[in-house]
Amino acid sequence: GNSVTQMEGPVTLSEEAFLTINCTYTATGYPSLFWYVQYPGEGLQLLLKATKADDKGSNKGFEATYRKETTSFHLEKGSVQVSDSAVYFCALRDMNYGGATNKLIFGTGTLLAVQP
Amino acid sequence: DTEVTQTPKHLVMGMTNKKSLKCEQHMGHRAMYWYKQKAKKPPELMFVYSYEKLSINESVPSRFSPECPNSSLLNLHLHALQPEDSALYLCASSPYSKETQYFGPGTRLLVL
Fold first, then answer.
1. N or C terminus of chain B with fewer C-beta within 10 Å?
2. How far from chain centre, in Å, is Cα B69?
3. What 8-state DSSP symbol labels residue A74?
4. How many CA atoms lie within 13 A of A50 on its CB side?
5. B95 CB near a chain A CB, below 8 Å?
């Protein structure tokens, strides 16, 4: 079945360091891919998305490129801030979950801790 | 505006209580979702409503009862819950059933 694999956390970085959080997926067809962020005590916020191969999603300095050849959607940011500390979830839309339904398959989440 | 609101923010209930969680969106979205999230885990889908009709029930116990009174409102009725049902309950909506989901802030539920 479809699945998402994320790198284990926590990822601990100093402020202004470069961030990469790896995400790979297994899916049939061409699923849409998403990164969601969850700040402490809050719900999920959509960070960025990509709907087809070679698309680059970007938002708030974060970027991820849909790589079909490597089935990856790694999240990157050039210079992290303390305020980026959160849990990051990679997800794909399950295209096989019935014709009219929309199920997200989430990775396990990666905790990012940015230190001043 | 991509805001989904949820009330209450926190809820404590006993195993014999009946309570309800409420979710609202005014973005004209036609699909709404309930998720359950345990600590340090990803969200798990519980129910999907599409055009106010229940389209997915992920084998959720009957002590959880969803309701969609109109296209803007989604309720989750709770009855005879167990302590292991304590979790963050997230609501989400999407314009149609195949588009990006937007999440609310969640209701943190504690069952004693």
1. N
2. 14
3. -
4. 23
5. no
